[in-house]
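Q: what sequence does this backbone want?
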């Protein structure tokens, strides 16, 4: 049976992916700087081998025959559909381009780590220019195969089914809704009592691990480590999350851990019988971000969660003084401040989408060739002034060099954060409505009802259905902004 042969092929490819994921984790967490160039070659070669396996003549022939086979189950049919899509994308790309782009992306990311540290825009401009050029070619070829504009082909890679038309409509509404909301909240929200540090890294890590355990993270099948940029990688049986620590302020690291735990729970909950098959993968990056943001923003910044977590946080971090500051109501205020800030990853949920919209607009201009890489810092500064009223002139580190994404070749990814935030609000509203024990559970540290709802409605479904069907099945409606608006108004305006 040709379908079976495809499954076997993809099992082998999944093992190469596994090796690649682990090398990538090691590269970001453990590798000494001198190992960078050889690692970039090794990772590029693994990408090439995976590409060769997908695009081989046998895979094409098996696909051709598998299309005619009858008696496939719903999961098998969905798997075949995903394999077709993978094949279509991979055959659009010459092997040499896959290798060159992966190598360039790894080297550029490595160079970015050093350049960002030194605010050295000139030191990274050349590598980014090369990566943009390779991505233009990559996007044009993918787009041709998929019948999409180049930028849409990049979006389609991360989140099939949520295209520029949906994103433009969503972002258009947010651009008019968020700035006046942010103004109002900044003018009215009380400031929290200060939380005095310092907070030694080891204590913050112990706190992070304890909260992860409560949320359902399985340490038999995962780890927490440190990297430049928090991420979740690895494998459902060995899920690696990272954070970074600031000893003066524990909230960014704690929130990053809770965010990445949301990603990790999705990975650990993927359908176990299909882990090595395309249908068993997570349903795209926006849905992935919906799971991290549901955990971070909807759950862990809520009054209920902080009632449960405040004594744990204090046990790890408080020094016996400033007792009022460690109470749940003060932590809640600290977790729900709104302010204009330069850094996306530290931004609050009201201003965060503005950071994403800025990147969405700039990356389209970069890829279309309308914005030369050399002009990126000025364009960034202009948009920061428009959307957030802040200047970044000369401060590249906290301007266009702050995020790893472009320097790692991830163009078309940023919109997923805001689409994910909107989805998260929609999913959490439905979950609360359908299971009365979820919110009560969160307040007493009982997360099983929430996790079981997420497993049934999102994690365990892999790519069985498309995003729109997933949302309709779990929430009763397609992607819309109503729940996100209602969430922000309830939390920040009290209605
Ligand atoms: Co995330």
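A:
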């Amino acid at each position: 049976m040709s379908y079976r042969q495809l499954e076997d092929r993809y099992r082998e490819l999944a093992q190469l992916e596994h090796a690649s994921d682990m090398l990538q984790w090691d590269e970001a967490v453990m590798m000494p700087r001198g190992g960078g160039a050889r690692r970039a070659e090794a990772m590029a070669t693994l990408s090439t081998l995976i590409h060769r396996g997908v695009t081989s003549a046998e895979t094409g022939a098996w696909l051709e025959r598998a299309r005619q086979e009858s008696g496939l189950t719903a999961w098998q049919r969905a798997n075949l559909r995903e394999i077709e899509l993978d094949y279509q994308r991979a055959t659009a790309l010459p092997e040499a381009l896959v290798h060159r782009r992966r190598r360039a992306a790894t080297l550029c990311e490595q160079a970015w780590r050093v350049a960002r540290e030194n605010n050295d825009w000139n030191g990274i401009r050349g590598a980014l220019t090369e990566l943009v050029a390779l991505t233009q070619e990559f996007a044009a070829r993918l787009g041709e195969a998929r019948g999409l504009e180049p930028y849409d082909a990049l979006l389609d890679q991360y989140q099939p089914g949520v295209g520029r038309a949906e994103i433009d409509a969503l972002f258009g509404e947010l651009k008019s809704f968020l700035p006046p909301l942010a103004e109002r909240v900044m003018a009215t929200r009380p400031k929290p009592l200060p939380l005095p540090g310092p907070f030694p890294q080891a204590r913050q890590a112990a706190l992070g691990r304890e909260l992860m355990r409560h949320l359902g993270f399985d340490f038999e099948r995962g780890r927490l480590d440190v990297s430049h940029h928090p991420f979740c990688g690895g494998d459902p049986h060995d899920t690696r999350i990272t954070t970074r620590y600031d000893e003066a302020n524990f909230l960014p690291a704690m929130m990053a851990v809770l965010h990445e735990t949301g990603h990790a729970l999705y990975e650990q909950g993927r359908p176990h019988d299909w882990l090595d098959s395309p249908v068993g993968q997570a349903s795209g990056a926006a849905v992935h971000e919906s799971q991290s943001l549901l955990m971070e923003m909807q759950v862990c910044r809520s009054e209920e969660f902080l009632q449960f977590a405040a004594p744990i946080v204090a046990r790890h971090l408080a020094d016996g003084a400033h007792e009022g500051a460690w109470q749940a109501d003060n932590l809640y205020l600290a977790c729900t401040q709104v302010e204009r800030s330069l850094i996306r990853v530290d931004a609050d949920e009201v201003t965060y989408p503005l950071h994403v919209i800025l990147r969405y607009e700039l990356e389209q201009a970069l890829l279309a060739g309308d914005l030369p890489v050399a002009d990126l810092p000025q364009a960034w500064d202009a948009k920061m002034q428009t959307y957030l009223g802040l200047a970044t002139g000369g401060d590249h580190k906290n301007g266009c060099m702050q995020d790893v994404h472009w320097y790692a070749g991830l163009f078309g990814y940023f919109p997923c954060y805001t689409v994910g935030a909107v989805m998260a609000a929609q999913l959490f509203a439905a979950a609360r409505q359908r299971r009365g024990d979820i919110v009560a559970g969160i307040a007493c540290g009982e997360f099983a009802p929430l996790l079981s709802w997420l497993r049934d409605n999102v994690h365990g479904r892999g790519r069985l259905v498309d995003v729109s069907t997933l949302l309709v099945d779990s929430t009763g409606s397609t992607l819309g902004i109503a729940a996100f608006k209602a969430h922000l108004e309830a939390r920040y305006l009290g209605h």
